[in-house]
């Protein structure tokens, strides 16, 4: 029997508890944690749920689960990762990406979404058979490019809200601040990356190191694209100096 703490809508403990499987009382909430991992290549970790897992069997998802009584959010994140994936998350390189609240009859949840920077090879993981059957590291933009995979991930109540920030942080790994040279010869300084206010697309904010030093923006997806020269040679659009 699993016991859950109950919270008010602002995330304060009420001192009340409930048994897992019972409806969450009206105007009260249960805490759930979700862990988004990014490795040094900017890839995020997905896990495929067990074939008989209820709910949502046999789909790609992310690590997460319910906090049990007495656990705070970070403690629950560590336990769930160790149980499901067989490794300890590096909470020193973690931050709480967002806090969300979902409300359905009998299923009111506070959702803490963690972003954790950590490199763990797939072969070093030990999946809990009752929970997980497979895992993979994948670039976030490749998830959206795969309609079937994207549909599975959007079944998670937090995914659409968290995805733009996951892409942004992934691009920050692949496009670090510093000096770059354009394939045509000009030099630029990457100042930061940002989200487009309308499309939520990651954008590179960079300054020209010539002329008047104008500041420009460019979709991050274009920054590392290869460019084919007239002689047929393929080179990166920008390269680090």
**Biggest sheet architecture:** 5 strands, antiparallel
Structural class: alpha+beta
CATH class group of the largest domain: Alpha Beta
What's the CATH architecture name of the largest domain? Alpha-Beta Complex
CATH homologous superfamily caption of the largest domain: Nucleoside Triphosphate Pyrophosphohydrolase
Distinct helical segment count: 5
Write the CATH fold name of the largest domain. Nucleoside Triphosphate Pyrophosphohydrolase
Kindly report the spatial arrangement of strands forming the biggest sheet.
13-12-11-10-16
Order of helices and strands: EEEEEEHEEEHHHEEEEHEEE
List segments where confidence is low: pLDDT < 50 over at least 5 consecutive residues.
Answer: none
User: How far do the termini sit from each other?
Assistant: 58 Å
Average pLDDT reading: 97
Strand content: 35-45%
Per the principal axes of the C-alpha atoms, what is the gross shape?
A: elongated
Number of domains: 2
Radius of gyration: 21 Å
Helix content: 10-25%
User: Could you give the count of β-strands?
Assistant: 16
Descriptive account of the structure:
With 241 residues, the protein is α+β, with helices and mostly antiparallel strands. The protein folds into two domains: 3-172, Alpha-Beta Complex (Nucleoside Triphosphate Pyrophosphohydrolase); 175-240, DUF1653-like domain (SH3 type barrels, Roll), CATH 2.30.30.320. It has helices spanning 73-85, 140-145, 147-153, 159-174, 220-223, and strands at residues 3-7, 13-19, 30-38, 44-49, 60-61, 63-66, 94-102, 109-117, 132-138, 178-182, 187-195, 202-208, 215-219, 226-228, 234-236, 238-240. The chain has a five-stranded antiparallel β-sheet with strand order 13-12-11-10-16. A four-stranded mixed β-sheet has the order 6-3-8-7, sandwiched between helices. The longest helix is centred in the last third of the chain and has 16 residues, at 159-174. The mean pLDDT is 97.
């Amino acid at each position: 029997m699993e016991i859950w703490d109950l919270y008010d809508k602002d995330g304060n403990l009420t001192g009340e508890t409930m048994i897992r499987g019972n409806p969450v009382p009206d105007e009260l909430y249960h805490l759930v944690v979700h862990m988004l991992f990014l490795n040094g290549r900017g890839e995020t970790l997905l896990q495929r749920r067990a074939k008989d897992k209820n709910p949502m069997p046999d789909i790609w998802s992310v690590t997460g689960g319910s906090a049990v009584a007495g656990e705070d959010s970070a403690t629950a994140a560590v336990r769930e990762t160790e149980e499901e994936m067989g490794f300890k998350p590096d909470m020193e390189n973690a931050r709480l990406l967002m806090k969300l609240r979902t409300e359905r009859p009998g299923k009111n949840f506070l959702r803490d979404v963690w972003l954790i920077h950590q490199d763990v090879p797939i072969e070093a993981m030990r999946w809990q058979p009752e929970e997980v059957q497979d895992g993979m590291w994948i670039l976030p933009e490749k998830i959206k490019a795969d309609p079937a995979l994207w549909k599975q991930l959007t079944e998670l109540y937090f995914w659409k809200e968290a995805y733009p920030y996951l892409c942004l942080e992934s691009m920050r790994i692949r496009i670090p601040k510093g000096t770059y040279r354009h394939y045509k010869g000009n030099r630029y300084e990457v100042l930061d990356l940002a989200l487009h206010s309308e499309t939520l697309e990651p954008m590179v904010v960079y300054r020209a190191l010539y002329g008047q030093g104008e500041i420009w923006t460019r979709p991050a997806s274009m920054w590392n694209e290869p460019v084919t020269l007239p002689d047929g040679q393929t080179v990166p659009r920008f390269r680090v100096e």
